[in-house]
């Protein structure tokens, strides 16, 4: 039959294709990524097995291998050992050969054994999904031809390229090269766009790398995570249970004392704290220096360079950017001062502490020095730190 059992028009075939690709994306982001890899939620066995079956049919990916590769990616993100970092391999290679990098990584049996623990290991996984991983896509081809006729062949081709293009190419590649950053996490992850309609929320990549164990990727009010919407629907019907959400940093102006709760808030939400530092200290300082004429004449270009570089983690700068940054710090005493205070603040959570008391004392000492620095911006930020406390979102 030319049009298969469904006998749909081309519009009907297109709608069917869009639905099927969305199911695939949902299976990847909800089951493989948020549930299996990061344990941010649990799924009802019926939903879990449906996703496993669908992924076998539409991707041929093995759960244990996918989880292992992604966990290793987080463990070595944009560093030596990352299976698919554009920082290490180049954007062109990851975008166009991302699927090949995945195939190479899954051959490392030692890595799969180390990182792929606690994934499904029942009879059907061992004897069907893993043992015959390549046969599922053949079954899908036959299903498409039966249901949609000859158009089913083109639909199958789109299904086969969907994850290699959008996940392996766009998310793993462009998601570490272009886009905006809500948080200066320690790798190059970026949010591509704030409305993640066709990739299930996965393009909110910077948010995810900052709070990897969260079931929800959207953090700003204007961001939309389609995968989270699917999870909430499943949760409403009792088919999913959310375990982890990002902590929320709260400010209470009545708090005067720095204690262990303050430290937990600062350390637990350190990327947000550093974003606050840039907004409340660095940015106003740069504006004041520009107003005072510091960036006039031959120094004019330094203003925009400083605005950009003081947002970035030094480990993510190339050699040229590091040289310019060092020049900025050396040339302008005020920039050197706020840089030193930023480094000292980061050292509170980066250095190894022998006790919680040592962490509290370290943060107290930073605030004391900031208040005695004679710089009003630092003094005001010390008050901001005093006001921090942490509220963990309810998973219900």
DSSP strand tally? 6
The overall pLDDT, averaged over residues, is 92
Widest beta sheet: strand line-up? 1-4
Q: What gap, in angstroms, lies between the N and C termini?
A: 49 Å
Strand percentage lies at: under 5%
The largest sheet is: 2 strands, antiparallel
Q: Compute the number of structural domains.
A: 2
Which secondary-structure class do the elements indicate?
mainly alpha
Any low-confidence stretches, pLDDT <50, length ≥5? none
Radius of gyration over alpha carbons? 25 Å
DSSP helix fraction: 55-70%
The arrangement of helices and strands along the chain is HEHHHHHHHHEHEHEEHHHHHHHE
Shape call: elongated
Helical segment tally? 18
Question: What descriptors fit this protein?
Answer:
two-stranded parallel ribbon; single chain; 396 residues; two-stranded antiparallel ribbon; mainly alpha
Structure description:
It is a single chain. This protein has 18 helices and six strands. With 396 residues, it is mainly alpha-helical. It has two domains: 10-242, no CATH class; 250-391, no CATH class. The chain has a two-stranded antiparallel ribbon with strand order 1-4. A two-stranded parallel ribbon has the order 2-3. The model has no long low-confidence stretch (mean pLDDT 92).
Topology readout:
Layout: H1 10-37, E1 41-43, H2 45-58, H3 63-75, H4 86-89, H5 91-106, H6 109-115, H7 123-129, H8 135-148, H9 151-171, E2 195-196, H10 205-210, E3 224-225, H11 226-236, E4 240-242, E5 248-251, H12 260-268, H13 270-291, H14 300-309, H15 319-331, H16 333-350, H17 356-371, H18 376-387, E6 388-391
Parallel strand pairs: 2-3
Antiparallel strand pairs: 1-4, 5-6
């Amino acid at each position: 039959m030319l049009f298969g059992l469904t006998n749909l028009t081309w519009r009907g075939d297109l709608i069917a294709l869009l639905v099927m690709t969305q199911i695939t994306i949902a299976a990847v982001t909800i089951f493989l990524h948020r549930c299996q890899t990061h344990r941010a939620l649990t799924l009802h066995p019926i939903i879990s097995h449906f996703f496993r079956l669908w992924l076998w049919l539409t991707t041929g990916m093995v759960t244990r291998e996918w989880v292992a590769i992604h966990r290793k990616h987080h463990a070595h993100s944009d560093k030596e050992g990352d299976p698919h970092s554009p920082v290490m391999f180049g954007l062109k290679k990851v975008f166009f050969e991302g699927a090949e990098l995945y195939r190479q990584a899954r051959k490392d049996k030692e890595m799969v054994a180390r990182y792929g623990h606690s994934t499904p290991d029942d009879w059907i996984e061992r004897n069907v999904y893993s043992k015959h991983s390549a046969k599922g896509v053949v079954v899908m081809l036959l299903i498409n031809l039966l249901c949609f006729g000859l158009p089913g062949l083109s639909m199958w081709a789109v299904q086969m390229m969907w994850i290699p293009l959008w996940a392996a190419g766009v998310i793993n590649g462009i998601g570490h090269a272009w886009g905006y950053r809500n948080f200066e996490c320690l790798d190059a992850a970026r949010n591509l766009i704030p409305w993640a309609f066709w990739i299930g929320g996965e393009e909110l990549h910077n948010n995810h790398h900052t709070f990897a164990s969260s079931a929800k990727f959207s953090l700003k009010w204007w961001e939309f995570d389609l995968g989270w919407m699917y999870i909430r629907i499943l949760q409403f019907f009792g088919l999913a249970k959310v375990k982890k959400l990002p902590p929320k940093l709260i400010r209470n102006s009545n708090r005067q004392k720095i204690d262990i709760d303050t430290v937990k808030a600062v350390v637990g939400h350190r990327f947000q704290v550093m974003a606050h530092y840039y907004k409340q200290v660095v940015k106003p300082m740069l504006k004041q220096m520009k107003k005072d004429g510091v960036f006039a004449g031959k120094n004019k270009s330094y203003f925009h360079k400083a605005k950009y570089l003081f947002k970035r983690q030094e480990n993510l700068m190339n050699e040229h950017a590091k040289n310019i940054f060092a020049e900025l710090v050396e040339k302008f005493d005020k920039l050197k001062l706020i840089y030193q205070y930023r480094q000292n603040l980061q050292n509170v959570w980066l250095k190894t502490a022998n006790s919680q008391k040592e962490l509290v004392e370290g943060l107290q000492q930073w605030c004391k020095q900031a208040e005695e620095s004679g710089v009003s911006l630092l003094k005001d930020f010390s008050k901001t730190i005093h006001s921090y406390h942490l509220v963990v979102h309810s998973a219900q």
